[in-house]
Amino acid sequence: MISRNSAFVYKGKPINAQSVADELGVQYVVEGSVRRAGSRVRITAQLIDAETDRHLWAERYDRELADIFAIQDEVTSSIVSILPGRVAAAAHDRVQRKPPENLAAYECVLAGKLLHHRAARADNEEAQRMLDRAIALEPGYAHARAWKACVLGQSCVYGWCADVEATMRTVIKEATLALSLDENDSDVHRILAAVNLLRRDYDKALYHQERALALNPNDDLIVVQQGEVLTWIGQADQGIEWIQKAMRLNPYHPERFWSHLGRAYFGARRYGEAVKAYRRISRADHSHLAFLAACHAQLGDAAAAKGAAQEVLQRAPDFSIERFIATQHYKHESDRERIRAALAKAQLPA
């Protein structure tokens, strides 16, 4: 452990955690910030593994500035009590986690991820084959199993699988196994958050989403999912901010990010901005078009709403409002009712 006098050399300077760790000869770095706004203070702290640049722990403290010394004692005590356990867990993880011994397995996972991001049925099927090959080459590869669950989940969401219930059972099995193999893989928690959203278990979804975000706060897929989760639980205004952050983190993000943003705008009743987001999707499917029709209806543009509704029925002739609502993961009935009413206003069949 390095003394505070050594650490104070970096006070007020922009730093790189890995460079500081090299200079001081340490494995882990705690960094943070203090911001004041009126009578309140916000203190943030995070623990970083300098070798891998992984965030192992992060916390934010929002307090009234009435007794700054009491706040200082509270935050110091909290950090000191938490860090030994996190460092010990990270050390254990370092011993347990090994890169895949088979380079071909690693390459298959990379290929599977790329195919998944294209969000097309044929690519999804090929991604499944790539991930199955990775697992066959290295059965204990947690990341491969997590991504297999992710790709299978995508096939469920888009209706590309023959048996949704059977596929979801496989998703849960693979994600649970991945968690047992590596509980500190952020993608495992990201996928378990998504799985629990599908199952309408919002508490578990939030737990796994928070774990994913704590483990890897700069992963655009995790950050965008934070926006999705907030939208589904009725906090669309905050959801918009997270989705936009994900887009900034990855300017070359998958096109589906625009769908997430459009849905969040709809939830926030910002229908004009939702229309602009959905218009950015080059290969809009019937669900995107349904939201587009709903937005136009809410804006009072009957002609545009009718046109989008007609496109919906061309893409999905058996479309019904109630079947569509059943695919949405809103926690609150009021959110379901608003999209239901907007789709009816767009003259889509009940």
Structure summary:
With 350 residues, the protein is mainly alpha-helical. It has helices at residues 4-7, 17-24, 68-96, 103-117, 121-137, 142-157, 164-181, 186-198, 202-215, 220-232, 236-249, 256-267, 271-278, 286-298, 302-315, 321-326, 333-345, and strands at residues 28-37, 40-49, 54-64. The chain folds into 3 domains: 4-96, no CATH class; 101-217, Alpha Horseshoe (Serine Threonine Protein Phosphatase 5, Tetratricopeptide repeat); 219-350, Serine Threonine Protein Phosphatase 5, Tetratricopeptide repeat (Alpha Horseshoe).
Question: What does this protein look like?
Answer:
The protein is mostly helical and 350 residues long. 65% of the residues lie in helices and 9% in strands. It folds into three domains: 4-96, no CATH class; 101-217, Tetratricopeptide repeat domain (Serine Threonine Protein Phosphatase 5, Tetratricopeptide repeat, Alpha Horseshoe), CATH 1.25.40.10; 219-350, Tetratricopeptide repeat domain (Serine Threonine Protein Phosphatase 5, Tetratricopeptide repeat), CATH 1.25.40. Helix 8 runs antiparallel to helix 9 (202-215). The protein is globular. The mean pLDDT is 87.
